[in-house]
Amino acid sequence: MALDPTIASLLEQLAATGATTPVYELSLADARAGLDLVGTIGIANPPAVARVEQRTIDAGDHAIAAELVWGSEAPRAALLFVHGGGFVLGSLRGYGPMVRHLAASTGALVVSLDYRLAPEHRFPAAVDDTLHGLRWLAAERDALGVSVLGVVGDSAGGNLAAVASIAAPSEGIDLALALELYPATDLSEDLASLERFGEGYYLTAEEARWFASQYLGDDERLLADWRANPMAATDLDDLPLTIVATAGYDPIGDAGRRWAARLAALEPRGSVPDDLDERLRQAGVEVSGWARGRVISLDFPTLVHGFASIAQLAPAAGAACELSYGLAAWVLERA
Description:
The protein has about 325 residues and is of the alpha/beta class. The chain has helices at about 5-15, 30-40, 90-105, 125-145, 155-165, 190-195, 205-215, 255-265, 275-280, 315-335, and strands at about 50-60, 65-70, 75-80, 110-115, 150-155, 175-180, 240-250, 290, 295-305.
């Protein structure tokens, strides 16, 4: 299926202005500023939310900044949000518009986490911070007035959200939902999508490999550690219901599809809308979806990696977010 025409035009404009310099050829400061700019332009007018607060989470030898965004005045559910950016890029500011979109669409309290980034802080720093954030949210749930918890992440954040959902049971934390958008849940290089969509579709295969190397270093043994590479996990029996959204023109798209296939083999948990097929037909974007085992899989064949960050630039990307966030809200309401 052809690439969405609006996104194709955006990519052509980027190429024409020379804004497609590979991330590994930029300074860290410029690369980070660039991704922040995408997030603030891609959702230039984020929806109104009930309120926003800044908090600091004590992680022992360091503090983690967090932004709390209330999608409604008295939400029942809270979502820990872990941003993308290849474990190297991403910030509270750059992801602020997307977090507000998520909060407004679900009505939930969204806790956006400013975890430590590579290469200054390699694995497992991001995992440690994510779990600190999850423990903090679970401990503060009564004070925050919420009773239902979930995790959300995109790209590298999808990897960390998956890790959090695997770790949560051993922490005594019951999650109702994981929402993972184009997740980097398999960091191995044997993805067919890396070759098929490795150039010309925003994220490149070489950039994906570079991000992984910045995070893991050159220790290939870490690919067998589920905290770094969720596909290596052997015990997934206690995972929550998970929504996995993938994009057709994404070099790491097969990572999310493999992950969804793993979750489909698990015993069912949580509620799935009876009208899922109708929701897919009415989505306003090309989508192939199914629910089986522990997963609702949504594949958007005309979209690219990072579509949730450009929800207001490309109508199809916005429609994909509304479908994904709407399903998340439905699951949370019934948890």
